[in-house]
Amino acid sequence: xxxxxxxxxxxxxxxxxxxxxxxxxxxxxxxxxxxxxxxxxxxxxxxxxxxxxxxxxxxxxxxxxxxxxxxxxxxxxxxxxxxxxxxxxxxxxxxxxxxxxxxxxxxxxxxxxxxxxxxxxxxxxxxxxxxxxxxxxxxxxxxxxxxxxxxxxxxxxxxxxxxxxxxxxxxxxxxxxxxxxxxxxxxxxxxxxxxxxxxxxxxxxxxxxxxxxxxxxxxxxxxxxxxxxxxxxxxxxxxxxxxxx
Length: 245
What we know:
By secondary structure, the protein is of the alpha+beta class. It contains three helices and eleven strands.
């Protein structure tokens, strides 16, 4: 009888061991997952940053930038060190970070720019993204090698020195215009969506800084004073990256 009981006991242990091992494995994976999630979960600062906090040294694609923390849109990016990308926002035309939440500092009044056009209001935003250039051609190379493949017609000259080139329908840039300084396109050019009904056009101006690319997004109507816009972009890039521009 004892000899018969031992094999039965062994059979029962063998049948239960895979289930127990599976349960143990699931438990270990769950604990490890919870620990990793806890360690990687982003934490947001509970106390708002002071306005006099110095610029943060941030690297993107190995390129050093000095970024004011108030200008960083994602709180999780407000720390020094290496980042995959950084998303910023600045007031135009002051090129200062927007006020913090709860900041009751009054906005400066609008003034006339001197040419009959009102200066951009203090509520206008300039959105800036710094990301690796990667295998993509630099903005200047795209200007001469990629964009000309998709032009629809000849450029139209504007009285202010800009030229406008629409892209053909059915191309990757359908519904957009290439707007550039006619005398020296490398000095200033932007890709702009066309105004459709009540939807205003927007523009992106791309600049390279070593292995990084700086993308500036702004309303198309700013191009009414494009020389000030170009100068402001140069000034901002010089502040963020002294060797850029």
